[in-house]
Amino acid sequence: MTLVKSIVILSLNRSIKPMKQINIKRFLARFSCVLLLIAQPVPAANDWIYVVKQGDNLWDLAREYLIDIAHWHQLQQLNNIADPYHIPPGTKLRVPIRWISQSPILARIGSLHGQATLIEGGSQEESSLTQGTFVFKGDAILTKADSTLLLEFVDGSTLLLQPNSRLELSHLNIYGKTGMVDTRLRLNQGRVETKVEKKQGPASRFEISTPASITSVRGTDYRVGSEATEQQSFTEVLEGGVNLKSGGNTKLISGGYGAVAKANQPPSAPISLLEAIDTQALPSEYGRNPVQFTLPNDANTKGYRVQIAKDRAFTEVIFDRQYNSYLIRGPELEDADYFAHIRAIDENGLEGKNADYFFTVNARPEAPIMQPKPEAGLTEETPAFIWARQQDINQYHFQLAKDKAFKDLVVDLPALSEAGVNSGYQLQLGQYFWRVASISSTEGHGPFSDPQTFKRVVPPPQAEEPEISDTTLVLNWPADLPGSQYHFQMAKDQAFTEIVYDKQVDAAKVELDRPEGGEYYIRVSTLYADGFKGPFGKPQIIDVPDSGWYWWLLTVLPFALFAL
Predict the structure, then answer these.
(1) Which of 235, 273, 355, 500 has the fewest Cβ atoms within 10 Å of its own Cβ atom?
(2) Predicted pLDDT at 25
(3) 103-272: which CATH topology?
(4) Do the two domains 103-272 and 467-549 of this chain adopt the same fold?
């Protein structure tokens, strides 16, 4: 007996008194009210409520919503409708869920980046998926490495299937025209991100099961991960609430919390998700590929997940990867604006709140290869600069400056047609920076290359005539700036592949043990006090006489000839 009927009977018992004490009209009026209360339908938990509109009748409603048009009569009895063809607008009709017609529905691949395959229900054959493909109840979807797929449902809900995942569409049904949708999915492995529209009606359901748990929602933003080998799942709720069931226990996980569930064990207590990291220090523009940046090195962070999309709503995710380091090397991207979600992963394996990151890539046309080499020491007053010529490039923009920020420009040539230039400017001694950008008729002005640095230095030292004794070889050269050191090399060949001596000295001289007689090559470079290494000078040739008796004979022979 329902609570309402119990209250009605109790009211009747209290109302019955000896007939002589009762006003008949008041009694009949009160009894009519009681009968109406008894007849009023009491909504059940599994009843759908329909609000009658002008012109509705039970016959049309049964034909439009119910599995059998004959149920109109039962609908009339259940709701105590006197005239099935004339129902007052606003009347609320109870409709048992079991009477409502159901039909299978489709889901659609909204976007796909990378590779994904479809296993049709009841088959083991795999076929490639493409954007716009429709999938059915019983189908399974597999994403490959570095691949993402957005699944769209008829009620507006979406699911992002992340790399290396397998998802089965266990149940996809809609209850006639009621708007109630029953969606049940199974994530065997991998990860998904869902945005579930708020459900209308008692039969609406969105459920994801894994080998370890079941999550069910009626409208929320949450993520589920499944590790098949470990038989555990990860649930992270961003908005709303999720019922997480595992090991016969159910827990409500609210927004901002997550939980870990293992097979046949109760879910963990709700765990607070890591807060979104600060992305303000990250670059807003990248002129190089691949995109690379550094995240906070936090002891509480096990790793990071980085997702990159072409749109703010993340309907087209083109990159999704987990990192076990704070050093991020991303993908090669076309020149465009991008949106990223970055989140930290805690020691439980739960991924934290999203940090939004917007950036631009302007890496094309690519900056050309350049000479002279970085950190070179140039002795020419008007050095030449050369870079590789590129196809489809119309012009080049060359800049030479005294500072790395290129505020103190020495030369600025914005429209060079050749892949090289002689600055025509007599450079003083000191450090300089230069860079080049390519200009294409189709892609416009590309990014500047990384600044290349060089020093305008005095010519390398040249050694004076050697001083050779019976036991030593002494070489001297002009001293450079105070505090400088020198790198001395002596070799048997001009290419300096057979080096005999290789020394760094503080003074502008070197004293060596006398080598064997023969021809040698020597060269010297300056090591400046600020750490800059100047270039080697041109190789010089020295002849070291043999040190045997014939050397002594050659030494005294001139004196003997003079005596004659």
Answers:
(1) 500
(2) 38
(3) Jelly Rolls (2.60.120)
(4) no
Instruction: Look at residue 534 in the predicted model and tell me its pLDDT.
Output: 83
How do beta strands 181-196 and 205-209 pair? parallel
| Cα–Cα dist 375/382, whole Å | 17
Which residues is 104 bridged to in the sheet? 173
Calculate the CA 540 to chain-centre distance: 57
> Mean pLDDT per 10-residue run, the chain (564 residues)?
32 34 37 35 69 94 94 94 94 95 95 95 88 95 96 95 97 93 96 92 93 91 92 95 95 96 95 96 88 90 96 95 93 93 97 97 75 78 83 87 93 90 83 90 84 87 90 91 90 90 92 91 89 86 75 48 45
- The amino acid that residue 527 corresponds to is L
Structural fold of domain 285-361: Immunoglobulin-like (2.60.40)
In contact, 255 and 240? CB cutoff 8 Å:
yes
The structure tokens 């002005």 sit at 445
Rounded CA separation 414/436 (Å): 9
Pick the CATH number of 467-549 from 2.60.40.2700, 1.10.3720.10, 2.60.40.10, 1.20.1290.10: 2.60.40.10
Preceding omega of 451 cis (within 30 degrees of 0): no
Domain ranges in the chain are 1-37, 41-99, 103-272, 285-361, 370-456, 467-549
pLDDT at 367: 66
Q: Is the dihedral of CA 285, 291, 297, 298 positive or negative?
A: positive
**What is the rounded distance in angstroms from the CA atom of residue 216 to the CA atom of residue 191?**
16
Q: Compute the 3-state secondary structure of the chain and give helix, strand, coil in percent, each to the nearest 5.
A: 10, 45, 45
> What's the pTM?
0.65
User: In the CATH scheme, what is the code of domain 370-456?
Assistant: 2.60.40.10
DSSP state of 268: P
10 Å CB burial of residue 391 (0-12, 13-18, 19+) is: exposed
Q: Tell me the torsion sign for CA atoms 492, 497, 498, 500.
A: positive
